[in-house]
Design brief:
single chain, alpha/beta, Pyruvate-ferredoxin Oxidoreductase, domain 3, six-stranded mixed sheet
Length: 190
């Protein structure tokens, strides 16, 4: 079995680390060898956060380099553009349409690019856009945006829906389980 490589990219505080933990738990429960690596950067200050999740029969390294990612799950549009070079030919980017201004935009030194996703599509990048924040708010909290995006990723995997729900129940605090399951259902389209 080939190794599948997934990058989860976002901005500090968006829940990308919980998403990678949940995904890793699911894949281990399904019998895969799983390697997860996190790069925090300046995450506490709104900086970029990257998590690598690799799984298969035998995985030797958690790191994903240029042209190796089968999937990139981007919690924000500009992060999709920042990491697109890691996507392999034929790979897919699942991207939240939310825009979070990076520091150069906040201080007025730059403008947020208005056509990021259109430019990527012109280059032949396969993009699945979702307004994950809207669906998360519908589920009850913006903090479930990460779960909405995982649900979108789940649609590309041959794993039963119920297995994903079990992973949510095992990973999130019990008092938040129902809301996260609702968010997953909205992201999945159930």
């Amino acid at each position: 079995m080939a190794v599948t490589s997934i990058m989860i990219v976002g901005v500090g505080g968006q829940g990308s680390l919980l998403a990678s933990k949940l995904l890793g738990r699911l894949l281990i429960d399904e019998g895969h060898d799983v390697k997860v690596s996190e790069v925090h950067g300046m995450s506490q200050r709104g900086g970029s956060v990257v998590t690598y999740v690799r799984f298969g029969e035998k995985v030797y390294s958690p790191v994903i380099t240029k042209g190796e990612a089968d999937y990139i799950v981007s919690f924000e549009k500009s992060e999709a553009a920042r990491w697109v070079g890691c996507l392999k030919t034929g790979g897919k980017i699942i991207v939240n349409t939310q825009e979070i201004d990076p520091m150069p935009v906040i201080i007025g030194a730059a403008e947020y690019p208005s056509d990021i996703l259109e430019e990527l599509k012109k280059k032949g990048v396969w993009i699945d856009e979702v307004d994950a924040l809207k669906l998360a708010l519908e589920a009850g909290s913006a903090k479930t945006t990460n779960i909405v995006l995982l649900a979108r990723l789940a649609k590309y995997f041959d794993m039963p829906y119920e297995k994903w729900i079990e992973a949510i129940e095992k990973t999130v605090a019990p008092k938040f389980a129902e809301m996260n399951i609702k968010a997953f259902g909205l992201g999945y389209g159930k």
